[in-house]
Design brief:
With 234 residues, the protein is α+β, with helices and mostly antiparallel strands. The chain is 21% helix and 32% strand. It is built from five helices and twelve strands. The strands form two sheets. Strands 1, 2, 3, 4, 5, 6, 9, 10, 11 and 12 form a ten-stranded mixed beta sheet that branches. β9 and β10 form a beta hairpin. The two termini are 29 Å apart. The N terminus is likely disordered.
Amino acid sequence: MNGGQPLSLYFFMTLSLIYSDENLLVVNKPAGIATIPEGWDKSAPNLRHLLEAEFGRLWIVHRLDKATSGVIVFARTAEAHRTLSLFFESHAVHKTYHAIVCGAPKWDERTARHPLHTNVGRSHRTVVDYRRGKPSETAFRVLERFEGYALLAAVPATGRTHQVRAHLAALGFPIIADALYGAPPVERDTISPYMQRPALHAYSLAFELEGKPFLFTAPYPEDFAGVLGKLRVP
């Protein structure tokens, strides 16, 4: 997969810088690398560590799942960190994800409001739970339909772990290659072999800082774009 390159070097070479100033650093995160150290192995490659080696100290204001690609923002000062953290906590940041799902919805737009309970069981899944779940909301819109699949835009109004993945599963349209949330096994899905992780991409992120509007977008990575190319072939 990485052509013999050291893992950390491979990920550093495959991420791209979207924007940088004295307050912000925005990159297009590759799939397969954690935002910060995970689990017991604190020495494993992570995005923050790789970026700090090049850009100096960074502050975390939000995260993307290890398997998710796309736009991620870091603060470069403590003051920017405080401001951006408040933006995320108050839902003043507009995030849009793109997902390739199993099945083609008949609806054009749908909002999921299933309450979600996170970190359930050994697999640490997020599940719909009307008794213990927290209020959660994601707006979905169909961007393209294919034979048996669809490309959707997802705009979460809340920020639960695995929210987009869990809500799509609850609607009956799991993300391809997302076995944790009900996608068909690879051997039963003709598309999954071309996608070795859930087909979820953080496409854009927007907010206003010091009176200046910011909108960042991240192009699709090779695997995501490749699957769309195959689906678009008649």
